[in-house]
């Protein structure tokens, strides 16, 4: 696989991640190559090895080539990762041996060593050299955090088979360690939160493996954990049990470190009659969480009854605070799904997270915001689902309880999608001036309405399938029409810009923000508020486009400021070409849900986004957006 260039490897890596055909335009946009370059490189790749299937739908990796690529991906998934792994698990390595291991020249190795320096600096680590040898220098805690990052990025903590960790750490029995951890926690009448299991396992395996290698935490930088706490007792239990299998001598700092790993990741066992309501929560703390929820729901004009939700959510926040203070995190493998499918709920959770962070003086990462989204998402969705149902009229006689049976079947099968607004006995009673999303009738009648389904008196399987098909067609059309009407009214020639200059995200935010301020759309503090919101969680979606906005929704008018960049905008680790900054007027706070969800769902199609990037005028842009 060394025959492939870096550019070819990037293309192979991107296509190998796809389960469906990916268009050449999408590859070009994602990797910031020209379409001609992509097409040419794929031809060259297939000349070396026939990896990629090419069709008019796009490109896809041949199924029989995935196994061939597996060793290559494990060795060269990320050149910097492979090099870091080699360095972090060895004291000192000669440059010649390293170059031989990776089948590269010493000059190429020197280049890669320079490339990893910024990443090491993020973890307060340094690359040291002496007499043709190289090694990583820094605190043991920092090294463990680096190892955690490498594992997370290479595996995404998707350990369906625990063998994955066994391969990473030679000679370690991950299954045995998991049993030790679980039994130690249970002995103290606690259990591990399901969403914390993999993250906790990885961190404790790293700690025990490092101790096995005589790499102990000697620096006195950890806040001492009281020996009386359950976390410290469990940590000591884990270490002493593992010591019976392997000779380790953990320091007080090592035990405190594992205790901190457990913080916010374990919960007390409840007896059969107990519920989460019986777990004590300080009244002052509960009131603070109540205030945060009330102010956030009120700000967005959402009338939500959250009283039954308050206590369990407070318990979740309490655990979150413990994790934040201990610098621990959770793994959230549905984070991207939440951001993609329910963007407003995620943004709402960002607002709650920002208030929690300010109130309790902590930092909250994206994974934690994702779990807040899950908690509050059910409340918001249950509140709004009634308005999204299809307003339906049923036309049926009551002979042999036909009408009663039909209503029951509809409610049983489509209660989440259909609201029966009216029931009439005959077609003559149908008022043509009334608008219904769906008409269900057991009686044939002449109608040019495409939203009508004729069903038999017996409600057969065929009837059910016909209704189901019509319901989903109408819902898709209804959502599409709403989005078109909603989005098309929020654009202006004064706020549409096509530029041809490579810039970063701060410059993009400042450029669009200043344009919005200059036409009196918002106040001078708007740009800083947008940057503060961006610092909480990136508004870049699918590595394709960004929708920056302020924390406060207090603009003079709700509008989009659009930047189409023919070169690129460096947005964190992504190179994008489309930025839509949104300003929201206070009276439109409730509509913000629809606006935000609508624009993101519209842009989640990479083909649509690529079309928009080719726009040279606002008229062209809006036409492509709403078509």
Characterize the structure shown.
- With 627 residues, the protein is of the alpha/beta class.
- The protein folds into six domains: 6-74, Winged helix-like DNA-binding domain superfamily/Winged helix DNA-binding domain (Arc Repressor Mutant, subunit A, Orthogonal Bundle); 78-138, Arc Repressor Mutant, subunit A (Orthogonal Bundle); 146-268; 277-386, PRD domain (PTS-regulatory domain, PRD); 389-486, Rossmann fold; 491-626, Mannitol-specific EII, Chain A (3-Layer(aba) Sandwich), CATH 3.40.930.
- The protein is 53% helix and 13% strand.
- It contains 25 helices and 17 strands.
- Strands 12, 13, 14, 15, 16 and 17 form a six-stranded mixed β-sheet that branches. A four-stranded parallel β-sheet has the order 9-8-10-11.
- Helix 1 crosses helix 3 (35-48), helix 2 crosses helix 3 and helix 5 (79-88) crosses helix 7.
- The radius of gyration is 29 Å and the shape is globular.
CATH class value of the largest domain: Alpha Beta
SS elements, strand count: 17
Instruction: Kindly provide the radius of gyration, computed on alpha-carbon positions and rounded to a whole number of angstroms.
Output: 29 Å
Number of domains: 6
For the largest beta-sheet, the strand count, sense and barrel status come to: 6 strands, mixed
For the termini, the CA-CA separation is 44 Å
Quaternary organisation = single chain
Q: What is the SS-derived class?
A: alpha/beta
Instruction: Please tell me what the overall shape is.
Output: globular
Low-pLDDT stretches are none
Share of residues in helices: 40-55%
By CATH, the architecture of the largest domain is named 3-Layer(aba) Sandwich
Beta fraction: 5-15%
Q: CATH homologous superfamily of the largest domain?
A: Mannitol-specific EII, Chain A
User: How many separate helices?
Assistant: 25
- State the CATH topology of the largest domain: Mannitol-specific EII, Chain A
Average pLDDT metric = 85
